[in-house]
Design brief:
Number of helices: 9
Helix content: 55-70%
Distance between the termini: 23 Å
Strand content: 5-15%
Number of strands: 4
Largest sheet: 4 strands, antiparallel
Order of helices and strands: HHEHEHEHEHHHH
Strand order of the largest sheet: 2-3-1-4
Oligomer: single chain
Number of domains: 2
Shape: elongated
Amino acid sequence: MRPGFFLREAWRSIRANAAISVAATVTVMIAVFILGAVIPSFLYVQSTVDKQKDRLDISVYISDSATNAQVQGLSDRLEQMKGEGLVKSYSYVSKDDALKELKGRLNNPDIIELLPSNPLPASFKVLPTDPERNPDIAARLQDSPALDRTLENGISYAKETSDRLLKILKVIQIAGVVLIGVLLVASVLLIGNTIRLSIFARRREVEVMRLVGATNWFIRWPFVIEGIICGVIGAAAAILLIWGAKIAVVDDFVRSNTDGSLTRDEATTIGFVWLGLILIVAGGLVGALGSGITLRRFLKV
């Protein structure tokens, strides 16, 4: 293999077919720009849903008449499930703590003072490793004698909200993967059709090289390198456009809708540097695949 020769041939082809090369580069730029907008948006939405999923905890209410041994037995079950990886964490909330928490959520906390006694039960707040396993956790705790059966049968985890949120997450994941896949396939086909014009213009040259004994890869490499060059340049141009859009639109939107401080609970997305690297690699691969696939039919003499 002679990389220098193939690179010179690829550059010669680009210069000789400047209009076609520009068309291929612009095709990649448009496809990569759309891909660059879809990837962070998809990851941001998924992160937002994941943050909500982390809040799908389970409330295990403890009866006021439960003995210390019964409460300890309930705690032991949770500890066992934590060891099995079913539960991420759990914490005990006393009656007084539950009342303080309720008081903090009320617009008029003084109304609590009108209560003759504390009506709230103690509870365990359980954070599952996977919210889809909430029914399994509830089933394993259901027969505990420590449960307060007067409150949602002793266990509450907002089943309808949980199921709806998990379905939304699955739809987002599937839609994101399908959309990114469609964009990549469309990009390969578009650049393949564009580069086909360059190959068609040199089809006689390809046929002669094939007849005199040149191997398929010897003929293919200059075209593949040409596709990679067009793909990388198109991806770089798309990154510059995305950067401009980020500065002009996204950053301005964030500044106008937040106080500039970041919290741990905010949704996140991919960093711009990593996004740029992914798009450069994607552009190169799209160009290489488009050239390689298109060239196959011209290697049959």
